[in-house]
């Protein structure tokens, strides 16, 4: 059987046997090293995205394999960011895949001392009922002078600057139509 | 293949630490833990087995040339990294052949070969390489060897917003660095100089594949002024290897004996 | 900018490489200062004095851009003879109504003319809206020589005549030589061939004079001819991925999408009145009716008909200020039952955090949506006052729902960045567990409410039943189709539902629906323009084929001003948009921001109306008269010209006027929101300012959970100078306690020369830097800076003052035991006479609901 240099496991032995005493040649490469490549080449798809942190709007590319995110990097094509990301943008993968992310709805009863997990659909039903109740109880039709109000000051909203335009649009559309006026977001604070 | 490396121009670094995080992200390195150092904005302090890029923050009561401030002051940043020395102490000290010179002439630790002996740790004149406490093996910057294989640039250089970290063929980087230095000198930034670029400037390493443009003495950035690889000849390296080999044989014999006892 | 927008800052570094001079004005020496050519440390809260002195420098040294100023600004306009300046009235403008506690702005206007402000700001009017506003522009009196003492130019000149380099030294603590370098550098780099830009963030806005800070920069930039031109402008660096979008499609109380004002109860009683009060007879806002009618068609579909005012009556009406702090004060007084908080964390991120949490305790129910339970979600069990035992969970009746949210990688949608650029992010994977998008939550909540109200025949419930709420549901999770929502925002024809391609196609006859007129065109030809990603390297530098910018994919607003009055580029170097005489249209690198075929020599004929009133040299088309305003004849509540006022809590007496603070500011006179003395409070001798660090994001909800970021800035700290450290015995790396009358926080100490005491008026003045990222939840924790701050605000936009206030600092950790704000102040400063914040005429300002002291008329009268 012919001696196969590459089958020697210990690189140092290969170096000796191949005469590469300085340790500079291919001989010293382990099998893993020899086949090393970027893990991105295994991605199923690359999804164009935008950094979720500040207002600069750096381009991101999200690499997905087996329906899991394997990497998030800057997008060279973006004329805004040219592939760069700041430390927060570079940590986006940890933000979206980290163990800190809660995956269940939590509920705290009035005067309660602990969180309880409740099903999403039930929680949605409960919120809807409370919106209706608060709205009906605090409805104002007009001012003392007879000017129209058609509103409730009993329900308020805060948030929007981290959300999508489409989300803000539905928030504004639904909540305004419910008669809510106290709709605010980070833009003011 | 062409030798590739980094040219880190500290005059345009903004200390954002994107390189530190991008490196951890790509290489999936854990955080080193939370420690408020009180040393400017530097809370990771130095390169580590799990911190392969580190930004140094230097506050000085000295102004930089050409800058106007209300009082004499400047704040220097430098993103430090493995220098990928032309003559690498770690590589020469490695008895297992785990540390290799890649086709990009970078210095790479093969994690599947490294046995954690730690000889490399003391052999690095920059204190770059270190062993991870959790797995015992030695780790450091790979110059994103895996990415380079696919023609991609290293994660830190890609993320760097101001091109303080430039990646490319070493010879091109050298030309670029010379031009940049001349430009700065022309603008009156006479304190600027190149660290470790040329063999004659740093005979102890024969020059670095990751070199720097600095604005103050190397010590200020926690860099050695005259680093030298401790191994002066291959013999030492091979001596180490022989020792290790003997150890391995012995260990193997013990293992066989133990196995036999079972 | 390098600190908070590092990637945006790459362009500053690129400019520097090409020879630009970078000037950084900041109380601290930051990462921006480190690479700037010039760092100017300034006393926090004095930028108007600094900028006003630049105005004075430009005018008194004759460095202004004459041709630009004469043609494109309101410099020649003659102002009402009744107008009196702050120079005449010791810090007040004419028109202060002592009884109402507000300005009557009528004396500020153009001689013989009433001008309407841009529509989005009309709610700021404190008086009766004037129905014929803007109709008489042709009667405007002008002095093109700019020499009439009552012309805007001369008024501006007089107003800032005392804003000298010496005054800058006394007020801002900036050495006069340093100031002169800045002023000279700006002038040097402006003109036909060069432009300068200003960048700012909340360091300028979060003041009781926040809007006027920006106005001062606008005056400088107009005088130097730096608006509407490449390399010029005033750029707000916004801190969230879609904070611009949430202003355009406002989750804000006072606006409807596209900067249409919310109806006001007293005036906008029906659609005709609403249009009458908010439309402008001239300028682009003359198109107003089209935008509101098409919005109502988008919201109420077939129910919106001409015979029912297009359902205008479905819209709720405002009765004054319903902004965040006003609402929270009402909550604390148990006037609000339910509260939705989505991706925001007021218990940490909003001022007077203890009062915020008192507000949360006053609710019946609270819904929080975020990645993980935030301080806002957990206020009932682990807030400082709960830990200290002042309040127990058993005493808190608020029902709390926490919903986990989807990440941006788990949903389709668009963000609008700081340059008004809409960019689409595509869904990469499904959200885990019960995580859902806000789109999903709101859509399904809407469906449930429609069901709950299904059998109602009450008039109040019609808007819910008639709400157009049909979006395609995708997949098992029934996620609504975000692109369908975008299609509605873009607008379409009726009944065909063909996408509109530009806002000029929006109609007021019910034949179009459009959810946000300024976004019209973002789905031109049915193509999602916001998802365009033609690489920057394959386009010219304007990169019009990357994403889509409102309006009409314009990247630079008011770019008509990049050409001279004849329509030619000011210079070859600064060429951007110009008049092509051969083709008889405007052309250039960008979409021209002008009526495409209106020649430079066009002058409106007698009796012209609407857009026809804009002449060929009126680049500022959203203004009624098409000119940039050096002087604001109507729009703001606190004066037509920016004036230096001290912060609510200052360490110094106002060096310029007897009036210490902005007379029109909003204050909350409540026991849970006490203030320090106006100045020189011996208990709180230092200036404090809050800010962000590169390594964290806002209140920390998206950063303090991430180990990769936490190791970089692991703990709450404050920054102090070596001198202050010595004065107070603070050790680097040790602990300090910072206090205001509202609260105390402990923090690690970072002693650094990046903070320096200022020498002002022969006194040594210390400033303290306080990052605001931390609080008690997450993997990196610490006390929250907002335990210190107060409810006090700018009158125009109700933004708080957190960038300049007074504090005390002592060595050591925060002592245990009860603290102030949650209930009532525990320590009243004593033994010190209270210096007045206001001139006598201002002191009688009425106090309205929930302690709000304001001059805003409607609030005290109705509601």
From TrEMBL, chain A:
Q: Extract one GO cellular component term from the record.
A: cell envelope
Query: Required cofactors, per record?
Result: [4Fe-4S] cluster
- Cite a single GO BP annotation: anaerobic respiration
Q: What is this protein called?
A: 4Fe-4S Mo/W bis-MGD-type domain-containing protein
Keyword line: 4Fe-4S, Iron, Iron-sulfur, Metal-binding, Oxidoreductase
Residues covered by the 4Fe-4S Mo/W bis-MGD-type domain: 44-100
PANTHER family assigned: FORMATE DEHYDROGENASE-O MAJOR SUBUNIT, TUNGSTEN-CONTAINING FORMYLMETHANOFURAN DEHYDROGENASE 2 SUBUNIT B
Gene Ontology molecular function, alphabetical? 4 iron, 4 sulfur cluster binding; electron transfer activity; molybdenum ion binding; oxidoreductase activity
> Which protein family is named in the record?
Belongs to the prokaryotic molybdopterin-containing oxidoreductase family.
InterPro entries, per database record: Mopterin_OxRdtase_4Fe-4S_dom (IPR006963)
Subcellular location, record wording: Cell envelope
UniProtKB/TrEMBL annotation, chain B:
Annotated residues for binding of [4Fe-4S] cluster 2? 23, 141, 144, 156
List the source organism: Geomesophilobacter sediminis
Cellular component per GO? cell envelope
| Cofactor names | [4Fe-4S] cluster
Question: Which Gene3D superfamilies is this protein grouped with?
Answer: 3.30.70.20
Name of protein: 4Fe-4S dicluster domain-containing protein
Q: Where are the transmembrane segments?
A: 235-256
Entry GO MF terms: 4 iron, 4 sulfur cluster binding; metal ion binding
